[in-house]
Amino acid sequence: MTALPILLLLIFGAVLLLNTLGMLQSRGGWSLAFSEIAKRYGGWFRAAGVANNPAAAFRYKGFEARLICRVMRRRGYRRVTEFRIETPVGKTKFEILPVGEQPRSRKVKHSPRLLTGDTHFDDNFQIFAGYHQNEEVKKQITAAVRWQIVQLKGLSGGTAVTVATEKGKLVITKDKFLKNRQVLDDFVRYGLELFDQLELNNSDGIEFHEAGVTATLGELRCPICSSDIEGKMVLCVRCKTPHCHDCWQYNGKCGMYACNEVRKTHVSGK
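Request: output the structure for the sequence above.
Response:
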């Protein structure tokens, strides 16, 4: 009679042990994905533990970037992966989120929704600007910026993505804990490319006008050679990223990750 309870207890203990080992193995793979992000960008990472999720941080163009997974209690305990870096748009305040969701920030909550005129984008996202900043935000959300946001949404089965400026940071929030190494790598890459595009919109320097595109040219770096662009310059038709003319000729296409556009337009300074 006493052997049965002991046997059941042993079976329960074995099941619990196997579940714990499986969880630790899963969290180990999750930690590895974060460690590879930190290694790629020369930063540090924190491994996942029983009571905490993994995290990574590194410096990009002199600014600290952080990658974390957290639970948003104000959004119904939603699990999200979050990437944040210093905002490249100064004091401009905006929030871009899926259609149907309410803005988080009180500074934009009572603002009217902005439309970009891009039907595909406006059908999927809504933009809210800070007080008296509608025109400034419209200038920031260029076709290249919208393209990056669409790429972010497409990751991990198309789960919701939010892009906002918050307390001096550019914050990109993606639904779900991203654990796949390739997806996590893409999330960070797209986030950095979005930062680059917004930074480009706010660069100080000479203006150039070509093929209906207006931007500013300051200390722009070619994504292929990673050097400042000097001499002839071309612009990717798709994502509007500037390149050295010779680098484009050598590479044969856009150097921005996941763009791969082969069409270019020549840009002349003004």
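The chain has two domains: 30-201, 206-267.
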